[in-house]
Specification:
With about 90 residues, the protein is mainly α. It has four helices and no strands.
């Protein structure tokens, strides 16, 4: 599934099929039925945005090979280590 499609769904500019919803929801760590629960939001805007970004990253990684996912994990660890070291200085 392409990022542009998922982005369009998030913005409400694209319609989503039940089949596509079934594929997207696990990346968001949610059940398809959760998309139809219209209760009061319990999260702040930044928490929701963070979950959306994490869901997009997870969806992208799920389409990649194990070696590519491991490479991204190593790169992320290196970037966070560098970031943490710079913050301590």
């Amino acid at each position: 599934m392409q990022d542009s499609y998922i982005g369009g769904v998030e913005r409400g500019t694209r319609n989503i099929s039940i089949n596509s919803l079934h594929k997207i929801m696990p990346a968001l760590d949610a059940e398809p039925i959760d998309a139809f629960r219209f209760g009061e939001l319990e999260h702040t805007d930044w928490e929701l945005e963070k979950q959306q970004v994490l869901g997009i990253h997870l969806a992208m990684l799920q389409e990649r090979s194990l070696s590519e996912v491991k490479l991204v994990e190593r790169m992320s660890r290196d970037m966070f280590r560098t970031y943490d070291e710079e913050e301590q200085e």
